[in-house]
């Protein structure tokens, strides 16, 4: 054993102080680098658990938002159905304030033949009567926007008609200017201005 210890010391003496110093520094540097590497690996695994936690939280929030969205869609469908039912009831009852022209409670005593107006046929006359337009005077007082809305509500087959001239023609008819109305209608085919 003495030989071994003496051999080590003799080897250490042959290094010299500067060589031993560099070896110590080198070992400390390797230990420092290994410590940094170990720390970095440990912090990555800790950060990974943070990301996993955040992911789980976000996934949970996403699930809650999807559930709330589904509830809102259901509420929206129910409210839309309720609104449609109310509109249907208002149309059935002819409630005041609904529609463009209110339907009178009873049929008037006098009805004019609105088909004499270019562009109005039996079906359109029926639509106008349902909205309270029975006479040339009623038609002359109606707004073109209201007449157009009546046609749009009646469906696609009525949307091709243009009511722009109907109040003008009705005014001539209401005033008894039949010759003037006939001349106007010959000049303007289909009642178009």
Report what the structure shows:
70% of the residues lie in helices and 0% in strands. By secondary structure, the chain is an all-alpha fold. The protein has two domains: 19-91; 114-191, no CATH class. The longest helix has 77 residues, at 17-93. The mean pLDDT is 80.
How is the secondary structure organized here?
Elements: H1 2-15, H2 17-93, H3 122-130, H4 136-141, H5 144-154, H6 166-174, H7 178-187
Which key phrases capture this entry?
193 residues, mainly alpha
Q: How would you summarize what this structure contains?
A:
Helix content is 70%, strand content 0%. The chain has 193 residues and is an all-alpha fold.
Indicate the structural class: mainly alpha
Number of helices: 7
Main beta sheet: none
- Unreliable stretches (pLDDT < 50, length at least 5) are none
Radius of gyration: 47 Å
Number of strands: 0
């Amino acid at each position: 054993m003495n030989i071994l210890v003496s051999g080590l010391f003799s080897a250490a003496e042959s290094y010299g102080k500067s060589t031993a110093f560099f070896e110590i520094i080198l070992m400390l540097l390797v230990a420092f680098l290994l410590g940094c590497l170990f720390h970095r690996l440990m912090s990555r695994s800790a950060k990974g658990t943070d990301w996993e936690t955040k992911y789980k939280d976000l996934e949970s929030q996403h699930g809650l938002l999807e559930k709330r969205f589904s509830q809102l869609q259901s509420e929206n469908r129910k409210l839309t159905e309720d609104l449609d039912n109310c509109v249907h009831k208002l149309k059935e009852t002819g409630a005041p304030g609904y529609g463009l022209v209110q339907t009178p409670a009873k049929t008037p005593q006098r009805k004019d033949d609105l088909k004499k107006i270019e562009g109005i046929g039996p079906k359109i006359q029926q639509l106008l009567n349902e909205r309270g337009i029975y006479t040339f005077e009623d038609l002359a007082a109606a707004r073109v926007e209201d007449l157009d809305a009546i046609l749009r509500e009646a469906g696609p087959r009525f949307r091709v008609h243009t009511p722009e001239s109907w109040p003008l023609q009705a005014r001539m008819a209401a005033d008894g200017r039949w010759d003037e109305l006939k001349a106007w209608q010959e000049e303007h085919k289909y009642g178009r201005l």
